[in-house]
Amino acid sequence: MSTDLEQKALDLRKRVISVSKMSGAGHIASSLSSIDILNALYNGGILRIDCKQPEWRERDRFILSKGHATLALYNVLVDAGFVSQKDVDRYCQKGSIFGGHTTSSVPGVECNTGSLGHGLSFAIGSALCARLEKADYLTIALSGDGECQEGSMWEAAMFITHYNLINLVWIIDKNNIQLCGRINAVMNLDPLDEKLKAFGFDVKVIDGHNYDELMSTIKIDRNNLPAKPIAIIANTIKGKGVPLMEDVPEWHGRKPNADDYAIIYEQLRMPKDAGK
Amino acid sequence: MKKDFEASLYEQMKINKKIVLFLADSVFDLYEEFEREFPGRFFNFGIAESNMVAAAGGLAKASGKGDGELIPVVYTMTPFLIYRAYEFIRNDICMQKLNVKLVGVCSGVKNNNLGPTHHATEDIAVMRVLPDLTILSPVSPKEVSTAFLKSLEHNGPVYIRLGKAFETEIYDDAPQFEIGKSTLIQSGNDITIISTGNIITCALEAAARLRNEGITADVINMSTIKPIDAEGIIRSARKTGRVVSVEEHQIIGGLGSAVSEVLCENNIHTSFERIGFKDTFCTEYGWHKDLLEFYGMSPDSIFNVCKNILNK
């Protein structure tokens, strides 16, 4: 399973790059740090979803709170059967529904995110709904680490543990970089694990690029929910898989030029005609 | 209006099992009753309006559309609901057309002595620009419950702007209320006064004084701010040729602006004046009526503005 997912992840990374090249848009490095988490969720069988019924009532709800990682999410939704590669290849083009931040007009996307600090609270509503309706679907929210600088994240964190929302799993893609630079230089968050523990979470720290760890940690038993809400700190590398970008702050929002793409293609061993 | 809304909410939650109540440490008189009657159907988010509003969007989305869908009702003091959580209202509710009811109390300057941080004198302006949002502003206690009921029947985001206490009742019976339709409270020929919320009682007093001088006024209760009843405005403005708007809100962006848009876009040439806060915060203290008087919204002020227009 892990090998299959790793193989799939390599393919996904290439498609993130080719779609970015075709559109000249998107947050590439942030997408590459999240892509293994998304791949595990959608292609590893963690989420209970049905691409034929995107609004199926019993579906697990996944909320991409770091809504700028659409290059990753939309390509993953192709593999999960919700959308076509042909349509995603028109990312950010005139008339396309696939833009730089998530919108719920895309099949399989639960909500509009992009402004940070919204998705975890939106996920709370979803988890409350399941509780009220006595439904067994789970809600999983993926936020960024820089996003945790938003005050609303801590409002949400308080609520989750106060109301013991154990049917909600919060994953933090901890790549340690935000727009202006390294997070610990801009506005330090660490020790994030201790802060989350103090809020009452069962905190799990994993390698966000290791499929064995991702699968075993995120997949919780819906019939035997944990005693405390889970927060998963997934340690990741921004730009993971593309050495040119890996852990380099300036790649948060920078668009590669032709020379950069030549290097990236070389590093990912992509055919030169991909993304034309 | 606060007590009336809470009583109506209580009745509706008894009948309508779909309603889920979200509070933010709100001043709410019925905590114990709700705990007892509706266990698990209301959540206090603490002093955290942003989280509350986004969660309401998430609940509405997860519940889906159709029979059995849950309807989150978000209820707290207007300034904190609207100003603190504005981006959450925009992104998590309106942008996704989710079926959430936002109910704000103590609007305008009903929190007279708590000062301007606790007033809501710009909420109509900032909410009116949000696409797909319906805005209701009931006039009196009896209209509160009708407006709330109608909001529940409407599938989509609704903001209900309420006062607080001691609002004068203007109706004998529960009024007919239709979203998007204004009500002609009294009919006249010489001038049109359009108002929203309980400050309409000041307009009615002014109209009574005008009547003593042989001047008759149309007084229109614009209890839906959005969508605005353009037809009602045009009909009356064409008849009288003089229009005054009265609102416990800034004159910029509020009811008066909405009325002026209708008049201009429909080529209705009238004398026109807006009564409300004139680009100023309400920094005075005193009784609610003292504040209205100080800022030019008392019956006397409205009367004088009308007289000036009539004398032009």
Q: SS-based structural class of chain A?
A: alpha/beta
Roughly how many Å apart are the termini of chain A? 32 Å
- The ordered string of helix (H) and strand (E) elements of chain A is HHEHHHEHEEEHHEHEH
Averaged pLDDT of chain B: 96
**CATH H-tier superfamily of the largest domain in chain B:** Thiamin diphosphate (ThDP)-binding fold, Pyr/PP domains
Q: What form of chain A results from the Cα inertia axes? A: globular
What would CATH call the homologous superfamily of chain A?
Thiamin diphosphate (ThDP)-binding fold, Pyr/PP domains
Task: Work out the radius of gyration of chain A.
Answer: 18 Å
How would you portray this structure in words?
The complex is a heterodimer of chains A (276) and B (312). Chain A contains ten helices and seven strands. With 276 residues, chain A is an alpha/beta fold. In chain A, helix 1 runs antiparallel to helix 2. In chain A, strands 1-2-3-7-6 form a five-stranded parallel beta sheet, sandwiched between helices. A two-stranded antiparallel ribbon of chain A has the order 4-5. Chain A is globular, with a radius of gyration of 18 Å. Chain A has helices at 2-23, 28-43, 70-79, 85-88, 119-132, 151-162, 183-186, 192-199, 211-218, 258-268; strands at 61-64, 139-144, 168-174, 177-178, 181-182, 202-207, 230-235. Chain A has one domain (2-268): Thiamin diphosphate (ThDP)-binding fold, Pyr/PP domains (Rossmann fold, 3-Layer(aba) Sandwich). By secondary structure, chain B is an alpha/beta fold. Chain B folds into two domains: 2-161, Thiamin diphosphate (ThDP)-binding fold, Pyr/PP domains (Rossmann fold), CATH 3.40.50.970; 183-311, Rossmann fold (3-Layer(aba) Sandwich). Chain B is 40% helix and 19% strand. Chain B has twelve helices and twelve strands. In chain B, the strands form two sheets. In chain B, strands 2-1-3-4-6-5-10 form a seven-stranded mixed beta sheet, with helices on both faces. In chain B, helix 7 links the parallel strand 5 and strand 6. The longest helix of chain B has 15 residues, at 49-63. The mean pLDDT of chain B is 96. At the A-B interface, helix 5 and helix 6 of A face helix 3 and helix 5 of B.
